[in-house]
Design a protein that fits this description.
By secondary structure, the chain is α+β, with helices and mostly antiparallel strands. The chain is 36% helix and 22% strand. A five-stranded antiparallel sheet has the order 10-1-2-11-12. A five-stranded antiparallel sheet has the order 3-4-5-6-7. Pfam families: Proteasome.
């Protein structure tokens, strides 16, 4: 009996052809994925926990970059010792009955431009709280991605409420900073999540007015103190230097998007805030509002002392935070 040829053997090369094509395609995809894990040209890695050859985490670097593109924040911290250095005669002579004197224990003053709602006079807010009071001595500000700032504000509020429920007192600054930094650092290593693309500004009031401080929390979870300290150094008899005391002075912080203004003018604004003598809170409000409006658009060389017509109409959020009156927020709109 003559056997017929097997159809399976005749079709075997055709069956293997798709398998070969599949192996070639999978190899190509694997190589392209491997190449995209490193930064070459326009390709970049989306991995959260992979260091590049320079030692940076690409996603964290991009999150820090996103935090510098948010709404600009101008913050001025005055301590009690700063007010003792002011000329009392000039202060009493120039301060009118309507002007509000600077508290003896100092305070923290903030200014935020709201140029994103200046397109229409009917728009007064974007429903996003920029300044959130946590306790009588702590407030929180955020800049960068607005949705991430709202989420972190909720986390900060929950931390303060849990602390008060457990210990029966208001949360301390170091405990709040520890909780926020841990949460933000967790997002840099957690699979399936991305880092928060915003920076936080935590303002704290001291009990005696001499320890008012400001802290910045970066998307990486790093906490940076923004309060400057001057040390009084005294030389002893044997020639060694001894720190007799530390004296906190005023400190200035500029967060958010300041790239629209030139670096020289940014340094000029910061130097003016650090060296100028303020006689009352109205002067502080005037210079902070002007600095906030200047951060919106770059000024010409001829207009260094006055804002343009567009900048003068930019709404500005001004807040004063002190132990004497608490948190006071004003919305300044010039029509």
């Amino acid at each position: 009996m003559k056997l017929k040829p097997s159809h399976h053997r005749l079709q075997h090369p055709l069956i293997r052809l798709p398998r070969i094509l599949f192996l070639l395609l999978s190899t190509t995809v694997h190589l392209s994925t491997a190449n995209s894990s490193s930064s070459f040209g326009t390709r970049h890695s989306y991995s959260l926990t992979t260091f590049d050859p320079s030692g940076n985490l690409d996603q964290v670097v991009r999150a820090i970059r996103a935090s510098t593109l948010g709404v600009p924040i101008v913050a001025l911290c005055l301590n009690g010792e700063c007010n003792d250095d002011l000329d009392s005669t000039d202060s009493t002579s120039s301060t009118s009955s309507s002007a509000t004197a600077i508290p003896k224990e100092g305070g923290i003053y903030l200014s935020i431009p709201l140029h994103f709602i200046s397109s229409s006079p009917l728009i007064t807010d974007d429903a996003t709280p920029r300044i959130m009071p946590l306790t009588s001595k702590l407030i929180l500000l955020h800049t960068g991605i607005t949705s991430d700032g709202r989420a972190l504000s909720d986390i900060a509020m929950q931390l303060s409420l849990d602390y008060r429920y457990l210990y029966g007192q208001e949360i301390q600054p170091h405990d709040l900073l520890s909780g926020l930094s841990s949460k933000m650092q967790e997002m840099t290593v957690k699979p399936g999540f991305r880092p928060y693309g915003c920076a936080l500004l935590v303002c704290s009031l001291g009990e005696d007015g001499r320890s008012n401080a400001m802290y910045r929390v970066d998307p990486s979870g790093a906490v940076v103190s923004l309060s400057s300290v001057d040390e009084d150094i005294v030389h002893s008899e044997d020639g060694t230097s001894v720190n007799k005391s530390t004296k906190r002075r005023r400190s200035v912080s500029l967060l958010g998007n300041w790239e629209s203004i030139r670096q020289t003018k940014k340094e000029l604004i910061q130097h003016q805030l650090e060296t100028r003598t303020f006689e009352n809170e109205e002067q502080i409000q005037e210079i902070l509002v002007e600095a906030a409006r200047r951060s919106c658009d770059e000024l010409d060389e001829a207009s260094t002392t006055s804002c343009s017509s567009l900048e003068s109409r930019t709404p500005v959020l001004f807040a004063s935070f002190c132990c004497e009156r608490g948190l006071d927020i004003k919305r300044i709109i010039t029509l």
